[in-house]
Amino acid sequence: MEMTIDESKHVDDNGDIFVHRLKDLTDEEKQRLEAQNSRIIPDTKAARLEKEAKRHWDLFYKRNETKFFKDRHWTTREFQELINFKADERITFLELGCGVGNMVFPLVQEGFSNFYFYACDFSPRAVEFVKSNSLYDESRMKAFCADLTTDNLFENIEEGCVDIASLIFVLSAIHPEAWSKVAQVAYRALRPGGVLLFRDYGRYDMAQLRFKPGHKIADNFYMRQDGTRSYYYTEEELQNLFTNAGFEIIMNTYVQRRTVNFKEGIDVPRIFVQGKYRKPSNGKAEMIQIWQ
Ligand SMILES: C[S@@+](CC[C@H](N)C(=O)[O-])C[C@H]1O[C@@H](n2cnc3c(N)ncnc32)[C@H](O)[C@@H]1O
């Protein structure tokens, strides 16, 4: 069925707009993207950034401690999967790339007493910040170090034991060649029928358009001043990535929102991509994996 643009648009209670359409660029924005190509990061430097990815994130947390990211209080609104079950049902939750816990701690604060939380990150400092949070409770949480581009997650959790996993602004920090490994790790961690909740940067988000020449590593992949990296996704890229890993797509869409701070006179449009990907419970996905 053909849909007009308006029909594909959905506005939620918070004013976030869900739309299946790539942002149209103005001439000035096209020029800015073009200018980024005038000075691409040399291959040797790009290789060094990849080798030192963990160190750059660990230094990021040394510098910013727990002050950089805001608590993600929107997750229960956007991801009904977090609240749609019986109160006494035991739920195993895994945050992949947890940083200092800005997603898990708001859930802990709201109750979620039937949840057991696993939280992992490859930055030892980030994991230490999670463990030293006053809400950290060893009887219902376990934070540990794991690099999602390897198998070492499974030194701490059993394969197939997770009901809900999340990947929130993490995949964009990882080299595109390693994304399929990360998707595979998430798939293996989930039980059949388990769901992966996803949010990350969308193509032509203002943060992408703002990069000056000298920051571009590859198409849509950039280095920030502090050596951390970020990619800006289209819906199609994520759909292909997670479908190829064996997931069923429940949701996969751009989210347009505005970041407003009246005091500082800030009002900027943002573009994210949001997804919900389910590991099938009918064995079909296992077949896909065998053939990969
Ligand atoms: C932008 S932060 C997001 C943190 C958290 N998910 C949140 O929403 O606040 C990205 C996180 O991904 C982590 N990360 C990047 N690459 C990783 C990898 N290969 N394995 C595990 N964690 C990784 C970084 O250390 C950082 O904590």
Description:
The protein has about 290 residues and is an alpha/beta fold. It has one domain: Rossmann fold (3-Layer(aba) Sandwich). Helix content is about 30%, strand content about 25%. It contains 10 helices and 12 strands. It has helices spanning about 25-35, 45-50, 55-65, 75-80, 105-110, 125-130, 180-190, 205-210, 235-245, 285-290, and strands at about 10, 15-20, 90-95, 115-120, 140-145, 160-170, 190-200, 215-220, 220-225, 230, 250-260, 265-280. The protein has a 9-stranded mixed β-sheet with strand order 1-2-11-12-7-6-3-4-5. A 3-stranded antiparallel β-sheet has the order 8-9-10, covered by helices on one side. Strand 1 (about 10) and strand 2 (about 15-20) form a beta hairpin. The longest helix has 12 residues, at about 55-65. About 35% of the residues are buried. Residues about 1-5 and about 285-290 have low confidence and may be disordered. The site of S-adenosylmethionine has 21 residues, from helix 3. S-adenosylmethionine binds near residues 57, 148, 149 and 173.
